């Protein structure tokens, strides 16, 4: 399905994405959810966070329209809203790391080979 967005709608969408990606913890959660759906407790354990912290960040990611929760009995499983978001995140990673020269990312000690 193709949506014809106005300039204002496009700006709002980019702002929501920027808000989500502005926080390193939310980025880590999105990357974890790229691997597949997860419960908040699983995300907390995997990322070394408190459940309250995970819940707060999941609320932000839901408000930004990037993740959704599915009720399964008494638990909620969170996942990316759809496969196109997973594809877009993978493409974004490819763009960022697919540079022409070997480089060492900020804060890293291991060089990334040329793209």
TrEMBL record:
InterPro entries: ArsR-like_HTH, HTH_ArsR_DNA-bd_dom, HTH_Metal-responsive_Reg, WH-like_DNA-bd_sf, WH_DNA-bd_sf. Transmembrane segments: none annotated. Pfam families: HTH_5. Residues 6-100 form the HTH arsR-type domain. SMART domains: HTH_ARSR. This is Metalloregulator ArsR/SmtB family transcription factor. The lineage of its organism: Bacteria, Bacillati, Actinomycetota, Actinomycetes, Streptosporangiales.
């Amino acid at each position: 399905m193709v949506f014809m967005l106005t300039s204002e709608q496009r700006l709002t969408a980019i702002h929501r994405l920027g808000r989500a990606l502005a926080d390193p913890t939310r980025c880590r959660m999105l990357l974890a959810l790229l691997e597949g759906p997860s419960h908040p407790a699983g995300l907390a354990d995997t990322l070394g966070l408190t459940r309250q912290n995970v819940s707060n960040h999941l609320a932000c990611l839901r408000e930004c329209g990037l993740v959704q929760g599915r009720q399964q009995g008494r638990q909620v499983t969170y996942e990316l809203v759809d496969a196109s978001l997973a594809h877009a995140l993978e493409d974004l990673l490819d763009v960022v790391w697919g540079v022409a020269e070997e480089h060492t990312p900020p804060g890293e000690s291991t060089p990334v080979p040329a793209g």
